[in-house]
Amino acid sequence: AQSVTQLDSHVSVSEGTPVLLRCNYSSSYSPSLFWYVQHPNKGLQLLLKYTSAATLVKGINGFEAEFKKSETSFHLTKPSAHMSDAAEYFCVVSGASGYSTLTFGKGTMLLVSP
Amino acid sequence: EAQVTQNPRYLITVTGKKLTVTCSQNMNHEYMSWYRQDPGLGLRQIYYSMNVEVTDKGDVPEGYKVSRKEKRNFPLILESPSPNQTSLYFCASSLGVGFQETQYFGPGTRLLVL
Question: Could you report the per-residue pLDDT of A61-76, keeping only the tens digit for each?
Fold first, then answer.
């Protein structure tokens, strides 16, 4: 079995300040982990993914995430928020079945103020 | 352009009237899947398919049917829609069926069942 917990339903930051979106996972296997972003009225776009290579993963638009097995965490960070980062972010785990079956967290809404 | 397409994008229907949401991908992907997104619940998998004529239930399959007669198409069928199936639906596909594969999402279909 696998599960994902996104620790914050909403995160508010000011433009130019750091972003931290927290994600903890549970998996009986060595999982793959993903972060997807959904802008208002849009589909889902892959930000980055971890697949057992480097534990620090760099994604698009300046985002990165670090896989910490001991803490079962995969937090998403960005040094400086931009207004265009305002969106909903989903942490996703895969691997329990051995196949491409994704389990989504409930999402974190990132609000960016000027 | 490589993409996953869904039709219709918006649909209003009445309880009990059969409907089909189409999904098509032009990337020769093996794996296809349907998800529904509800506020506060993230995305939950309805059905998935690992190849032509191979389909299986996800986490919330009740009230839905699928078929995979061709590799590129994976329609979602609601035989007798009910109001609790009002939701935002996403189709996704990935090249392979392994858990490290990246899934690519369609633009979504917003369904309202009256």
Answer: 999 999 998 999 999 9
